[in-house]
């Protein structure tokens, strides 16, 4: 008997299309991609209650309460729901990570309330939530109900808001209730694992990290002041927590805050978030401004006028006038009109405060071109290094500032970032990122420092080579550094090498010839042709980098007059070892045998190759990078002859047979 009815094939297609469209809809509405707000202008957050975005771009959750108000609530949520779990995984939610910078400002310090909470909720609208102790999350009748499906990390400034609160300055984990499951007094752990208390109501910028591992069911919460920009190794709270019964498939993420009778403003300055990944880093240099603490108090009644009071007032006014005049002289600066044409200019007052008046205690070091001070910018809390250059000459200052401003636009992971500059009279102040580990020079030659391993040395050399390649070929102009040496290589917290001190740098357009200029640099690192041509070329930088290669590999400065005659010049000594077939004898003896033979031989030979007397015989930085990455072979290079150039250098020069490009064994170009 024949079957009747339509074929099931079209229905199958319809089901597949329906599932595909459903998947696309889920992807579109989940907002699964990480997001980051370095300020909140144009952020399109869903704001309710008293939450607003201020003109400079800060997210203000609550404004000041007043005596006629019982308090305010403020909510700010990411505008799209995010997918926090897969329905097929019954007992597991996705991992998530958040990072944000906040500030709590009270007109009467330490007397505000009630705090704010990082919040994950089923809706971006919490209409039944109330102010005061309930943090804008719930109300008296809904507090603690499982149907809330609310997870929050509270930053509470109200003492006794729940039975589990240790004090009015703590961080807590909340599940469906403002009675915290777990709390800790606000603090952070230093690198020495010392617990340092943090005042949440200090009015200063603080940073928070919240990381939830959906596999292990563990929540880690860390806070630190902005003066400690790196995340502390030890979290404040590490609490086992299974969020799978709490979080629904799609949830909203954001912030909730409230006030009571006391006056507080709660600010979020920057925020990033990611699901199944680490929250993107925040750019601390772009933080928006916000109003700081403005103490208020009742004005004392004037005492009856007497001769004693009059004398006191006159004396006070005189002292105040003198102090104001002295303060004005201290901070005063004459800004010429042309300076306004160049970006990244800091007010002198801000740098003076950052370095505590260029106090000797903040001094990091002195060099031939100025002194360097550690500072903390008052506006952002960012740690910086401020170089004060005083040469007693204003001629050419405008051209110098133009070049310095250009440097502020350069971006490379192996260059110390120039944050800005300031001119005051004959002083030029340059503001750089602060490098916590100081200079490479101190690690090579200061016996009190930990000996650098070969792995660290090789990584540093490759990084500096990459930075130089960017200066020579990767930026809009050719930049010749002119002072490459170990003391101008700074090390960050992860021992990455970053080239610094661009005070002698020269610029010229790609394809053009550099102009003749005065010969500057450091003896032992200067290319011999500079005394003849006076032109700052990329080849001269390659020569200096060759000296750095030998300096790092040998643990010796380019010239050491304490050595025997044949070892005074490190380049001569390495060449002699090479010609005798014992080039590895030149490796820093403090390393023993703890180095990679192939890498050490490569660095030493490449140092000789870059140190040749003839500029055209030296490799370019592109080729140097290829050698260090092992993308090009040095097997074809041999020592052919030795050339004496007594008019340029007091030691022997090396010329190596430099094969044509078609003889190089390159795996990639």
Automatic annotation (TrEMBL):
One of its GO terms (molecular function) is ATP binding. It catalyses: L-seryl-[protein] + ATP = O-phospho-L-seryl-[protein] + ADP + H(+); L-threonyl-[protein] + ATP = O-phospho-L-threonyl-[protein] + ADP + H(+). ATP binds at residue 388. The chain crosses the membrane at residues 302-325. The keyword Acetylation does not apply. Residues 1-28 form the signal peptide. This is non-specific serine/threonine protein kinase. It comes from Nymphaea colorata.
